[in-house]
């Protein structure tokens, strides 16, 4: 459901970020990373849409559902960018943009 | 000796060309030896695959499939206004269309399984691409991707951070550690002077980049020249030439069969099918083994317009045709006896800061970097595979730049071709070009990068800010390369292509897929609805039983007896033989007092409800004290004051 929410969000003009979290050690590494992703998402005002495919430590954070004005969206973007840029657990982050691809 | 009853098979010239013998992929001999792709799964990453069509259904692999646009397991294409979502189905048919079903066509690897990942029919992001490239990567062996950035002659794009990570992860961990095989179409931008080195999927070291030739063996109008193209195979040409016959969708205007599949889109799946044949005979081929075998076995052929050059290792490459035409017989025979290439070794130069002007043609800027024996000692790199150059150049018109790379042997690669339509004013910012033309050559020596401005207009001069050289290869020596070439040629008679000869394969790694237990949203919603319905019905039933029992008890039992609170108590003690061992779930709602005031648990309220079996109802009646039988006809829904028991308690 969270993945679907992530895809639907982007398709409907919502914001989403991919983040790469600093790796953790230990037996329950995956669970800890997920919890960390939840925490990062919460701090940034986003929702954790889950791990990105098979890429360890990479998570998709999406804007919570709901209608917003353009100014509100921009404010959310700036806030999320600011939080993700300075969060100690985030090694890398990137706002997801639509890619143009053509069949050949 | 191979005959199929598929009506369009005779028109599949790319499989068996009777009109122009030799102008096909030379696969029939492979089929005769029962090599059909059995045990291999190829996934078409595209706009969907109509897997219900009879030419695909028997070979369809639902386990390897997914719809990322709708987030469900079924990659069926959706009808669209442009009638364009047939692309994936056509590609799929080229690979694995079922033979001898009297329908349409035959696939190159008709014994393989075909899956679909629907991802192009919706918004596509870096993260979604990354998911697609590793989807079911322990089931899917080969990913056929007949798409890429725009071929408009002015785009410079490729996989972004996550897509790159996914490609790398795929070759490292996919296919039980032997590496996913990514086959990409080199692009259709020939008319715009496009070059696949501006396409990061095509010039990636992790992908097998395939171009197209027409039935006459010439470069079609749409094909692009490229130093990082590995090989070519057949596809459609101009209007007078035949295109590829394959399965089509039958939605909207589709008929289930087409004779018009073309472009480099049609070439890449043929290559994917041939790789599937290779993997059948040797499943433990790594992703690099596959590339090596293509380089070793592709055949140069007569085309005066092509700039064939033979490199130091004896491999001939042209920017138009790569290392030449793919040949299924040669590929499979080589795969059969192939022992794995040694580990991937690499060398990365320092970031070389230049800040030098790029002069206008005929003058050029030349920068050098010497790779010494000491530089390569740690990695053990001796002979080359891919050579990559990452550059940052400022220029007011990017398409006016021309970049050439010279390997130590002197082999020249046009890695950055001028593009008249590219007027981008931002130059190149850490863009990586690559070449395969130095494959097999010695890595040690001086590499030269030559850049010039071929523009006509007097513009501000461009500046080469920095560049970096990356070499990929192995510890094979040039002698090892020669020995391998000889070994392969000895196998081309087919003498090893039988079941009695098999080289041992090491076991693969067991890599669990993390999404093995994912419930799809639709399934989850269904379960939640069923659960809610069950809970509601349970509560409703309980309430009905309680309330109906209460109302019956209050009307006849409670007139004479005090009532206890609660709907349940223990069953009556006096039981006849039939009741022994009977589990009576519905029990007296009211306890009764004997006339002398002793409580007992004889229920003269009926213990029966309409849900008890008739025999239990009869037994319940037998338990009632005689004097209350006449009160069995308890009126329902009596007003509360009439339901009060002897002691005034409300039942």
Please describe what this structure looks like.
The complex is a heterodimer of chains A (104) and B (651). With 104 residues, chain A is an alpha+beta fold. In chain A, 41% of the residues lie in helices and 23% in strands. Chain A has a four-stranded antiparallel beta sheet, sandwiched between helices. The N and C termini of chain A lie far apart (33 Å). Residues 1-9 of chain A have low confidence and may be disordered. In chain B, helix 2 packs parallel to helix 5, helix 5 packs parallel to helix 7 (328-336) and helix 6 packs across helix 7. In chain B, the strands form six sheets. Chain B has a seven-stranded parallel beta sheet, sandwiched between helices. In chain B, strands 13, 14, 16, 19 and 21 form a five-stranded antiparallel beta sheet that branches. In chain B, a hairpin with a 5-residue loop joins strand 22 and strand 23. The N and C termini of chain B lie far apart (91 Å). The longest helix of chain B has 40 residues, at 521-560. Chain B has helices spanning 28-32, 87-96, 126-133, 161-173, 264-281, 287-297, 328-336, 373-377, 478-491, 521-560, 614-623; strands spanning 41-46, 66-67, 113-118, 142-145, 147-148, 181-185, 207-213, 231-234, 244-247, 257-261, 309-310, 316-317, 345-348, 352-358, 365-371, 383-394, 401-406, 412-416, 428-435, 445-453, 462-474, 592-593, 599-600. Chains A and B meet through helix 1 and strand 5 of A and helix 3, strand 5, helix 4 and helix 5 of B. Strand 5 (102-103) of chain A pairs antiparallel with strand 5 (147-148) of chain B.
């Amino acid at each position: 459901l969270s993945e679907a929410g992530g895809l639907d969000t982007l398709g409907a003009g919502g914001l989403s970020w991919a983040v790469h979290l600093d790796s953790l050690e230990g037996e329950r590494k995956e669970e800890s990373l997920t919890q960390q992703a939840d925490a990062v998402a919460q701090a940034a005002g986003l929702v954790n849409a889950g791990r990105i495919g098979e890429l360890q430590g990479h998570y998709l954070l999406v804007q919570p559902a709901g209608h917003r004005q353009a100014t509100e969206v921009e404010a959310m973007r700036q806030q999320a960018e600011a939080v993700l840029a300075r969060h100690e657990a985030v090694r890398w982050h990137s706002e997801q943009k639509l890619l143009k691809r053509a069949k050949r | 000796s191979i005959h199929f009853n598929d009506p369009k098979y005779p028109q599949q010239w790319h499989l068996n060309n009777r009109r122009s013998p030799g102008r096909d992929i030379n696969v029939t001999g492979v089929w005769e030896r029962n090599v059909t792709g059995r045990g291999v799964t190829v996934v078409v990453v595209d706009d969907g695959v109509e897997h219900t069509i009879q030419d695909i259904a028997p070979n369809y692999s639902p386990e390897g499939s997914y719809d990322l646009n709708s987030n469900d397991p079924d990659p069926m294409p959706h009808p669209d206004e442009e009638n364009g979502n047939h692309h994936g189905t056509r590609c799929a048919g080229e690979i694995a269309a079922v033979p001898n079903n009297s329908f349409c066509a035959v696939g190159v690897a008709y014994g393989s399984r075909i899956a679909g990942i629907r991802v192009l029919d919706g918004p596509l992001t870096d993260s979604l691409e990354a998911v697609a490239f590793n989807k079911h990567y322990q089931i899917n062996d080969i990913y056929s991707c007949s798409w890429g950035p725009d071929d408009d002659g002015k785009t410079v794009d490729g996989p972004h951070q996550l897509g790159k990570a996914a490609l790398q992860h795929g070759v490292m961990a996919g296919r039980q550690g032997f590496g996913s095989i990514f086959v990409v179409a080199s692009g259709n931008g020939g008319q715009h002077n496009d070059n696949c080195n501006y396409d990061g999927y095509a010039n990636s070291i992790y992908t097998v980049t395939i171009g197209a030739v027409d039935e006459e063996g010439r470069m079609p109008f749409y094909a692009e020249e490229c130093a990082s193209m590995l090989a070519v195979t057949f596809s459609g040409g101009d209007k007078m030439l035949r295109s590829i016959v394959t399965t089509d969708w039958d939605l909207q205007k589709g008929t289930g069969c087409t004779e018009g599949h073309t472009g480099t889109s049609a070439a890449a799946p043929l290559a994917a099918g041939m790789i599937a044949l290779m993997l059948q005979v040797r499943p433990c081929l790594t992703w690099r083994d596959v590339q090596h075998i293509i380089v070793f076995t592709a055949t140069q052929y007569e085309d005066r317009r092509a700039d064939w050059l033979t490199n130091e290792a004896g491999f001939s490459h042209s920017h138009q045709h790569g290392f030449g035409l793919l040949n299924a017989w040669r590929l499979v025979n080589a795969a059969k006896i192939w022992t794995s290439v040694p580990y991937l070794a690499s060398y990365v130069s320092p970031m070389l800061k230049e800040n030098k002007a790029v002069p206008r043609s005929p003058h050029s800027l030349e920068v050098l970097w010497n790779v010494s024996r000491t530089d390569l000692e740690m990695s053990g790199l001796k002979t080359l595979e891919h050579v990559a150059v990452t550059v940052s150049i400022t220029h007011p018109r990017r398409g006016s730049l021309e970049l050439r790379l010279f390997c130590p042997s002197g082999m020249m690669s046009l890695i950055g071709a001028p593009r008249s339509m590219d007027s981008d004013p931002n130059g190149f910012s850490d863009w990586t070009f690559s070449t395969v033309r130095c494959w097999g050559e010695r890595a040690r020596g001086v590499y030269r990068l030559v850049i010039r401005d071929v523009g006509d207009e007097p513009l501000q001069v461009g500046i080469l800010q920095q560049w970096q050289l990356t070499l990929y290869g192995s510890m094979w020596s040039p002698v090892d390369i020669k020995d391998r070439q000889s070994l392969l040629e000895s196998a081309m008679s087919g003498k090893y292509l039988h079941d009695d000869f098999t080289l041992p394969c090491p076991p693969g790694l067991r890599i669990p897929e993390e999404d093995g237990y994912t419930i799809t949203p639709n399934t989850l919603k269904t379960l939640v609805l069923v659960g809610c319905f069950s809970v509601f019905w349970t509560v409703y039933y309980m309430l009905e039983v309680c309330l109906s029992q209460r109302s019956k008890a209050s009307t006849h039992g409670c007139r004479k007896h005090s009532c206890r609170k609660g709907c349940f108590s223990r069953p009556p003690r006096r039981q006849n033989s039939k009741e022994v061992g009977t589990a009576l779930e519905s029990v007296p709602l009211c306890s009764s007092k004997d006339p002398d005031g002793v409580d007992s648990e004889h229920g003269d309220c009926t213990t029966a409800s309409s849900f008890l079996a008739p025999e239990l109802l009869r037994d319940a009646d037998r338990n009632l004290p005689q004097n209350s039988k006449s009160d069995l006809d308890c009126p329902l829904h009596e007003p509360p004051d009439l339901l009060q028991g002897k002691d005034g308690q409300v039942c």
